[in-house]
Amino acid sequence: MSSLSRDDVAKLAGLARIEMTEEELVSLSSQFGMILDAVARVQEVDLSGVKATSHPQPLENVARPDVVLPSLSPEDALSGAPAKEDSRFRVPQILGEAE
Amino acid sequence: MIRQSAAQMAAALSEGSTTSVELTQAHLDQIAAVDNNVKAFLHVDAEGALAQAKSVDAQRKSGEKLSPLAGIPLALKDVLAQRGVPTTAGSKILQGWRPPYDSTVVTKLKDAGLVILGKTNMDEFAMGSSTENSGYGPTFNPWDLTRTPGGSSGGSAAAVSAFQAPLAVGSDTGGSIRQPAALTGIVGVRPTYGAVSRFGLIAYSSSLDQAGPFGRTVLDTALLHEVMAGHDPKDATSINAPVPAVVAAAKSGDVKGMKIGVIKQLQGEGYQKGVQARFDESLQVLASLGAEIVEVDCPNFEYALAAYYLIAPSECSSNLARFDAMRYGLRTGDIDGASAEAVMSATRDAGFGREVKRRIILGTYALSSGYYDAYYGSAQKIRTLIIQDYAKAFTQADVLVSPTAPTTAYKIGEKVDDPMAMYLGDVATIPVNLAGICGMSLPAGLADEDNLPVGFQIMAPAMQDQRLYQAGAALEAALLSQWGAPILSKAPALAGSK
């Protein structure tokens, strides 16, 4: 039986930038054992020599000609912004006070 | 009028016996009458729909050459961006967002003169199989309002089943078109991966996602398929090849001499009795029409569900990183001095529902160093084995078949607290997504034990989508003559329905 402790889930939630309540952490950690057991079935098969498939289409480096095409106007690009200032997105501070 | 097929409505429009404005208004009236109970729509754009209808009517009047579905109303899954119209993907994190651009699918629908009635409910970011994971409450199955319509495209399927729209667009990452089509008694197709542009389709799992059509008949579904599909330079994974002749195939509907492979692993144990019975009968019907039925072995399908629930969450944990509270969508906790990281974490907590959080955490775990090879890496190799199983099976058969879902529609709330039980409902649809091929679900009748619709799944190789329609149309015609009336005529009447 696999398991993931409450602290493991808290660490993953931190990496994924999701705040979680104590109740959510505990409930997720209790569900994870069952889910991990189910997905771990991929390890039952002998996979030596099998190539990985990341994508169903065998495409490589699809690029368009390097020419300027019309794109969103600054007004459109900013139309959904939670906060803006002039023609820029306004964001919370990304560096600490001391930096 | 609203109970006709889209093809019949199109004929009425072209001979002038009705107008698009009339047709659109009739569907808006039906939405007003039944959607209080069904809750298929998150947003109804009556104004935009009537304006488009009016413009198509004017074009028709002036003798302009119009595309076959011009003036036909349609419901759009809320996962596709439509300029100026609220688009949420069923998530609170996008509440109130109005995209500044159209997805390519929407551009194609508009260019073909289709009338978009509104945006339909879905499991948040298409993660789910019952539409119960929507941030805005569940959709209810028109066959029985205590049951789910399936998901994630449950709103689109319910809208077509309840005659709120003759056609709808959905998206299918692990069965999200085919399974709700099965549970609501309609037709749904997941086209070949890369056949329909993903530009403007809000991403869940990029290597599996594909938009596709819903209709009440195989021909209607083909007509919409042809509008949506085609190469798009804005999507790097779009296939640069002609669209398969799906409409012609739906009109021919012939299975004489066709080899139909029954997948041994996708039937029997775990499948509801009435589901298996309708499936077996449909096979007999196909055989009586001259098809050759063979059994094929796909031994690695047993591991498809496990591989899917590693690959999809892994890709989603990366895709959903874009919801960072900075450029669009929700922002909470932005008080003086709060760091960007704190604002991001608070916003993602407030904006994402339980299932989305569960999958992001699972994906973050599966991709973390130390576990990557054991989980994500192994899942990608299973994916190769499933592709090989299909390749071998398609040397023995032209199309492959199975029941679409192991059960008929289940009760709202029945599986919400048991994610694994919910995931098992996708066992027969997921292999198609992993291999990037195409699949259809069409009604095979009602299960004896609960009188609810059963779906019959047909699968074909990549870019052979026309085979789905050829076999589907043949089965549909034969079953219709057995039943004497379309399956939806057996659904209990909804209160207020026209």
Task: Explain what the structure shows.
The complex is a heterodimer of chains A (99) and B (498). Chain A has helices at residues 6-15, 22-39, 74-77; strands at 84-85, 88-89. By secondary structure, chain A is mostly helical. Chain A has a domain at 6-44: Histone, subunit A. A two-stranded antiparallel sheet of chain A has the order 1-2. In chain A, helix 1 (6-15) crosses helix 2 (22-39). Chain A is flat, with a radius of gyration of 23 Å. Chain B is α/β, with parallel strands linked by helices and 498 residues long. Chain B has one domain (6-301, 383-490): Amidase signature (AS) enzymes, CATH 3.90.1300.10. Chain B has an eleven-stranded mixed sheet, sandwiched between helices. In chain B, helix 2 runs antiparallel to helix 3 and helix 10 crosses helix 13 (373-396). Classes of the chains: A mainly alpha (99), B alpha/beta (498). At the A-B interface, helix 1 and helix 2 of A face helix 10, helix 11, helix 12, helix 13 and helix 14 of B.
Q: Which terms summarize this structure?
A:
heterodimer; A: 99 residues; mainly alpha; Histone, subunit A; 3 helices; flat; B: 498 residues; alpha/beta; Amidase signature (AS) enzymes; eleven-stranded mixed β-sheet; 16 helices; 40% helix
Specify the CATH homologous superfamily of chain B: Amidase signature (AS) domain
Let me know the average pLDDT of chain B.
Answer: 97
Helix content of chain A: 25-40%
Identify the overall geometry of chain B. globular
Please give the largest β-sheet of chain B.
Answer: 11 strands, mixed
Strand content of chain A: under 5%
Number of strands of chain A: 2
- Which spans of chain A of ≥5 residues are poorly predicted at pLDDT below 50? none
Determine the N-to-C terminus distance of chain A: 46 Å
SSE order of chain A in H/E notation? HHHEE
Q: Please state how the strands of the largest beta sheet of chain B are arranged side by side.
A: 1-3-2-4-6-5-10-11-9-7-8
CATH topology of chain B: Amidase signature (AS) enzymes
Q: Trace the largest sheet of chain A across and list its strands.
A: 1-2
